[in-house]
Amino acid sequence: QDRDVTGVQTCALPISESKSLAKDAVEVWRGGLGRDDEMTLVASFHLGNALRALGEYADAEAINRDTLERMNRVLGENDEYTLRMANSHGADLRLAGDFQQAMELDEENVRRYGSMLDDEDPATLRAANNLAVDHRLIGGFKQALEIDDNVLQVRATLLGDHNPEVFSSAISLARDRYGCGQYIEALAFTEEILKKYEPMMP
């Protein structure tokens, strides 16, 4: 069960408003409860996401790195928000071109999710998807293919073939096959994807 101790609901707002709301929440909770209080940390999580969505990558990375360090210390490495924060910081690192550090962080996150939940939990699958992206960015297409193939199979079984996350996994797997030099297989698979999903597209 997801929790939001801050009451900051940013997902339905325009990004600029989300940033303003999250920034105000951080200042209020930090001033009243301190930098390490859970409410301050969760509000900082929302602020970092809003900054990244607005393209303010350096500010997002700095906030998220600090917040992740505090969450690990205060909430514990296996806390729900610590794990989500680690996912977010991995995105920051990829945008900064620090693919190796992103991979190390995402490998640890997959391990933590797997030990807390199971390999088929949606959160574990999202973490695995991030790790596959890391491998692909440094040319590790074989490793990415193995991860994406597993994620696709599990998602298709759990969600059905016509779910957007299944479609996203299928596209990732096609990229991996091209990267591995499996051009004929990749082309056939891409045509299969298009045939299956084209009727769903606007």
Give a written overview of the molecule.
The chain has 202 residues and is mainly α. The chain is 76% helix and 0% strand. The protein is built from nine helices and no strands. The protein is elongated and about 60 Å long. It starts with 14 loop residues before the first helix and ends in a 5-residue tail after the last helix. Residues 1-11 have low confidence and may be disordered.
Secondary structure layout plus pairing:
Elements: H1 15-33, H2 38-53, H3 57-74, H4 80-95, H5 99-116, H6 122-137, H7 141-159, H8 164-179, H9 183-197
Low-pLDDT segments, ≥5 res: 1-11
Helix-residue proportion: over 70%
The arrangement of helices and strands along the chain is HHHHHHHHH
Report the total helices: 9
The total strand number stands at: 0
Mean pLDDT: 88
Percent range for β-strand residues:
under 5%
Question: What's the short story on this structure?
Answer:
The protein has 202 residues and is mostly helical.
Give the key terms.
202 residues, mainly alpha, 9 helices, elongated, disordered N terminus
